[in-house]
Amino acid sequence: MTTADRTRWKYRVIGRLGSILIRLLGRTWRIRELDSHHEASLHRRGDPLIYSFWHDGMLIPAFARRGSATCVLISRHGDGELIAQVILRLGFTTERGSTTRGGPGALRRMARLAEHDLAITPDGPKGPRHQAQPGVVALGEVTGRTILPVGLAAAPAWRLKSWDAFCIPKPFARVCIAFGEPIDCSSDMGEAQRDLRRGQLEERMRRATERAEESVASPHGKTTSVAPRQASSS
């Protein structure tokens, strides 16, 4: 067995084990959703959308939206391969690339996936933390899709000593998914308009994250179902 074969085998094993652990851990979480009417309205129109959430919270939608066949942009770095192997087993599809490595090509390939919702972490793969890079707005411009800002929070949670302070909700944690006001992107935006949209996205994600954090700080509130979502037929 070559070194490359051993590496691929290791990633696959870790991916399988990781997906099992996420399923087991996630089933104990108490999940709330805030302002989910934004998401529901877009889906009622039959419009595929772009979910935009910060890199540190990705474990939450990985469980809550498992089985949805959403296409997730994953970096080509080594840790990206591990993430890709995990989420593939949770019922997502992936496209490899980032704003720093293979980004434009990956965005074009994602744009052709008309039947799937798309998901991107605009501060990945290596930050700066909670600062939106231009890639997600470019994806909205290329596809004509609406961007849905998402805020994520959990308490109690472990935080890794990584650039993004990656969040792992503890067993029985309070978890919140908060949706912000959607952002429309046209295909003929100028540079000033793109930068305006990027700023709007960052601000709406920040506000959604604050609402999610306030929600999990309180032990009271209604939880929502976390059953796997079926792939959209749109």
CATH topology: Glycerol-3-phosphate (1)-acyltransferase
Low-confidence parts: none
- Write the CATH architecture name: 3-Layer(aba) Sandwich
Query: Which structural class do you get from the secondary structure elements?
Result: alpha/beta
User: Biggest β-sheet: count, sense, barrel?
Assistant: 7 strands, mixed
- Average pLDDT number: 86
* Gyration radius from CA atoms, angstroms: 17 Å
Q: SSE order, as H and E?
A: HEHEHEHEHEHEEH
Count up the helices.
7
What is the approximate shape? Answer: globular
- In total, the number of domains comes to 1
What is the rounded distance between the termini? 43 Å
Strand order of the largest sheet: 1-7-6-2-5-3-4
Give the percentage of residues in beta strands.
15-25%
Classified in CATH, the superfamily is Glycerol-3-phosphate (1)-acyltransferase
**Care to count the β-strands?**
7
* CATH class group: Alpha Beta
Helix content: 40-55%
